[in-house]
Structure formats: structure tokens, C-alpha cells
Amino acid sequence: MTTIPQTMKAAVLVPGNNELVIQDVPVPTPGPNQVLVKIAAAGVCHSDTFILSAALPDSRSYILGHENVGYAVQLGEQVTGITVGQLYGIWDGVPCAACMATGLPPALNSIGLGVNGGYAEYLAVDATELVPVPDGLAPEMASVASDALLTAYTAVHEVAQLGPGTTKKVLIFGCGGLGHLAVQLAIYYGATVYVCDFKPAARELALQLGAKQAFDLQDLTSLTTAGSFNVDVVIDFVANEQSFTLGKTALHGDAFAMGGLGPASSYVLVGFTADQLPLSAIDLILWRTNVLSVLYGTIDDMKICLDLLAQGIVKPVVKTEPLQSINSILDGLKAADGSIIGRRVIIPSL
């Protein structure tokens, strides 16, 4: 029988601090219909840097970490269908009903985003949020299915509508923690993939994963200005003014190639930023451009993502680090030096 301690280490968001605070906090007790999970791996997401920036004012103090897998160690009352000792991915799609009075969006009232998350040794979650991890899949690999891969899958398959046998040309901005997974998915479905990233190592990774070309911003600017580059779909994991302007221009070229009579092109926004993007209704209408957004995905799609990982169809680039490294990882995600490639994953037991 697993001995559960009374306290645990956790990385806590404290209002007014520009970094997380490692604290000793009580281990949560699972309530009715809840399961206590011992966190095995927690992916570090760029959106956490957005939370720390206080771009959306929030006076709450809580544990961050919304990309989690862990072992079920204790069941609350009325829980059925959960096996103690089994490794589970944690779907983060059930907002805290009691937290909705904040007036913030539902996504900011969920695990690791308004409610205690997985940058800790233990986490209590609703039993309905647990998805069994396929046998043989390492926790650090499985963790990306809880957010990075799930969001990329939603962007590529559900929103951009890419599926097996597609012949579309796709431009992906950002080959980072989510982008490098989207590259693999789009190529798996048959798309011709182009990548734009300012980091040389990220461009090299994109080419290794099968992208046809990988541009820096200057190269892509030259191509779009000359009108010699066009795509059917843009998936933007950066979502700043420069990427949005370049991406729209690449879609304009596709309209010219189709004589203006082809299907509408799609611009899929995924990047979690507070940047103001240059939107013009007349521009979008005349160029037949659909601008779409992505936030997370369904629990059924998370199951598909775990299967994609288990089958080796998608191979995340991950590096594991201890909980004490969380602030240096977040600093690396904010930095412009491109020091972080792929996904960083916290292992609390290290």
C-alpha cells in the first residue's frame, strides 16, 4: 500500500511575483468522485509564461501545471472504474464550477490555470478526467497528450480539417513544444509542410521531421513579397503581428493561384499571446480567408493522441527536469535565444 505524505513540494503562482515559488503545501485529499494522483510527469507550456506576465489580472494563488500524467494512489467516495497504481493522463477540460464567479474564461478556471495543477507531487482530480495511458508509453512522452499534442491535433485535424490523403500545402509558424508535433501530424496526413521559425535549431528539427522547407522570418518575408510562395493553410503557434501578416500574405498567393475561385483558405491561430493582430474584415472577405482559433480539445481526441504516441506515429522531442528547475525552464521559454527546443517535462520525483 502506498504511503501518502501530509505535505508536498509545489510550484505556486503568487500574485506579484514574476516567477513561481517552490513551497511545502498540504497533499490534497480526494473528495467524492475524485482521485488522488501522484504526478509522474508534467509538461511545461508557454502559456504559463503568459499567466506569469499578468496580462490578465488575477489575484488567485494556485499551483500551475496543466499537462499532467500520474498514478492513481487514492480513490474518493463513489469512484468506480479507476485502478489504483494505473498510469493516467489527465484531461483538463472540466472547469471548476465554483471558480466561474471570477468572470474569467472557463479555460482559466481549470487544472493548472486557476485551479491547482501538476507542478507538484500530488494532484486531486475528477475521476472523469482520467484517461488510461497505453502500456509501455513512458510518462514523459504520455504527458504531451494532455495538452501539447491534443492542442496540435485539434489545430491540424479538427480545425484545419487535414486528414489522411490530404494534398494541401501548410505553413506552420513555430516548431516548438506544440509546433513540432503539428509538423508530424500534418506530414502523417499527407500535407506538404513548410515551417517558419527564428531559431536555427528549430528549423533544423523541422527538416529532420520531414518539412519540405524551413524559413527564418527574413526568408519568408522575401518570398511572400515576391509573390512566389503560397499555401492553403496557415497554423500559427506564434500569433504575433509579424507572423500574422506574413501568413495572410502566403494565403493571398493561394487565392491568385486558384484564380480566386477555389475554396477559402484557413488561418488557424494557436499561439497564446496578448498581441493585437492586424485584422481587417474587408481584407479577409475579399481574399476568402477564414481565421479560426484553437483552445485545447476533447477527451476522445486525447485518447486518439495517446494512441498516436503509443504507435510511434508522433514522436515528441522531450527533456525531463526536476521541479526545482521550473523557473529556469520558464525563463528559457521567454528568452529570445532559442535555448529550448521541443518540450520540457517536469518529473517531481527527480
Automatic annotation (TrEMBL):
Database matches in Pfam families: ADH_N (PF08240), ADH_zinc_N (PF00107)
Cofactors: Zn(2+)
Organism domain of life: Eukaryota
The keyword Oxidoreductase appears for this protein: yes
GO cellular component, one term: cytoplasm
Residues annotated as domain Enoyl reductase (ER): 16-346
Keywords, sorted A to Z: Metal-binding, Oxidoreductase, Zinc
Residue ranges of the TM segments: none
Gene Ontology MF terms in the entry: alcohol dehydrogenase (NAD+) activity; zinc ion binding
Family under the similarity heading: Belongs to the zinc-containing alcohol dehydrogenase family.
PANTHER family registered for this protein in UniProt: ALCOHOL DEHYDROGENASE 1-RELATED, VACUOLAR PROTEIN SORTING-ASSOCIATED PROTEIN 11
Descriptive protein name: GroES-like protein
